[in-house]
Amino acid sequence: MRRIYYRFPQSIDLDFEIARPFRDVLACIGRLSNTHNTRRGPDGLIKERIVIQIAEGRTRFLDLDRLAPLEETVAETADFRIDLQKTLLTPEKRLPVSENVFYLRIVDKGAVTECYVAKEGSHGDLDAIDLRTILKGACE
Predict the structure, then answer these.
(1) Residues in Cβ contact with 133 at an 8 Å cutoff, skipping those fewer than 6 apart
(2) For residue 62, how many other CB atoms are within 10 A of its CB?
(3) Contacts of 20 by beta carbon, 8 Å cutoff, 6+ apart
(4) DSSP SS3 for 75
């Protein structure tokens, strides 16, 4: 089943291909969902978290955790909302550093998967090329 978001941005920031079949890319995206890592920044520890949602009913997004394995329920095309959050961890509290929201459309093209990325707004410190790097790294 195709999972399309009817308000997917008309202006695309980046389009690229991943040299993997559609089902493999879906599995990579599923593994990335709700993951995080921690690194040392200039002000202390920074937690980087990835939250991924998939289009549901053409009008909203659904957390990937609430869906059966993607490879079995999605075909041809899928739209995702990817939220990359950074939080500064201090002994007293957690302070949000930045939030980057992207829309990602992946399309089955046989042996390769076509990807279209659009960033929501201009806030945050990442761009579409950073998201491409994350996706390609997860699929290697």
Answers:
(1) none
(2) 14
(3) 28, 112, 113, 139
(4) coil
